[in-house]
Amino acid sequence: MLKAKQSSEPIKVVIRCKGLTQRDIESKAREAVTVDQSSCEVSLHDLANGKCKKFTFEQVYDEDSSQKQVFDENAADIVQGVLGGYNGTVISYGTCASGKSFTMNGSQEDEELEGIVPRACKVIFEKIEQQEKKYLVKASFVHIYQGETRNLIGKNKNKSLKIFETSDGQIQVKDIKTVRVRDAESLLKVYRAGLRNSYVGSTRMNACSTRSHMLFFITIESEEIGEDDKPYIRKGVLKLVDLAPAERTRKTCCTGERLKEANSVNSSLSVFGQVVSALTSKRSTYIPYRSSSLTTILRDSLGGTSKTVLFTHITKSSYSYDEVLIALKLANRAKFIKNKPTLSLLSDSESILEFQSELSKDELVENQEEQKMHSFDVQSSIAQDEPADHDSMVIEQEQKLADEDLSVNDEKDIGEQDTPDAITVSQQ
Ligand SMILES: Nc1ncnc2c1ncn2[C@@H]1O[C@H](COP(=O)(O)OP(=O)(O)OP(=O)(O)O)[C@@H](O)[C@H]1O
């Protein structure tokens, strides 16, 4: 793999603050957080003793921020980078019910409320349509539930997937389900099918609380001819990560399975915090990535070659003071993590052949469709003595293809031929 090294840059840390909910107001919570968007300052007030802790970040959003603004100002660049052959990561972290899933997924009912993932899916294909180049787009969706990495799409969703490191230092997830997609709608279908399979449970803090860390991967490859007249594949992986919340189990009063889930999430988030600390401490000689599946998969995103934005969600409620303080302290440290975004240009014959053979399948399908249309054209002209309706034929055929490819939720494996044993999710 050819890699044009770039200089290091800090990961972007963004704070998004949610206002008091009706429930907070009814339970007499007060506002313990103030956000100054112009100075990018967040103040956390200890209302009992009148003290205040101030933090500054690259970008802070109050409760009136729009989904579009949040995407445009933080994720659009990352998506553009992935199209250009860089890895990109968006991580949604924060306290319970603070809007982590709202930022990533948002609401399907109202386009204005769509989150980063649906917006990214649309932008990717809008940009691809503006290009002459051919692109391959593939998606995978896994979650980490009680310490096990599992597919959220395809068959065998209960199988625990192994994470391993290849001899050249890449982190891969074995048997991850990967689906080739040809348009934004299909990509969104994969995402939504995975979401339907995710584990959401009711807690005292949130009726729809995420019980596992969810990681949606979009791999984008494009081919070009280099100055040496040889073919190269530009390859970028976009990781869209919705983390489960750290939970004070005494507060959420969960028991049984919910308690096990919370303990497992807390332990992986504690490793996440240790990795952030180690990466930003001058004294540290070891980064404990391997202590959890989450940080192993995110190795490239934290201190690696990815362009990364870390959203830290907090709420204004005075009852969440302790959790907000922990989240702000982690975010404040994460500001000092440096990554080296690195362009990935593949020149090995295996990658090029794989890319070209995928594209040749498209040509085969296109030729078959053309032949079918031609015979339909001739037959219908003979039968009706009228020209065939080409446009509606094409739309029908495309719809059929999309449906066949994306019947993910029916446990029917899709794009089986597209499924490699493993995909690279992290690089040294
Ligand atoms: N900025 C926002 N504007 C409007 N509604 C929001 C906003 N952020 C969150 N919400 C609403 O607050 C509720 C909780 O949000 P969400 O489920 O996204 O939180 P979460 O942090 O993912 O929760 P959990 O930690 O339990 O997984 C949802 O009803 C969501 O629609």
UniProtKB/TrEMBL annotation:
Residues 373-428 are annotated as: Disordered. GO terms for molecular function: ATP binding; microtubule binding; microtubule motor activity. One of its GO terms (cellular component) is microtubule associated complex. The keyword Isomerase does not apply. Residues 10-337 form the Kinesin motor domain. ATP binds at G94, T95, C96, A97, S98, G99, K100, S101. The keyword Nuclease does not apply. Transmembrane segments: none annotated. PROSITE patterns: KINESIN_MOTOR_2 (PS50067). Its main location: cytoplasm. Keywords: ATP-binding, Coiled coil, Cytoplasm, Motor protein, Nucleotide-binding. SUPFAM superfamilies: P-loop containing nucleoside triphosphate hydrolases. Belongs to the TRAFAC class myosin-kinesin ATPase superfamily. Kinesin family. This is Kinesin motor domain-containing protein. It comes from Euplotes crassus.
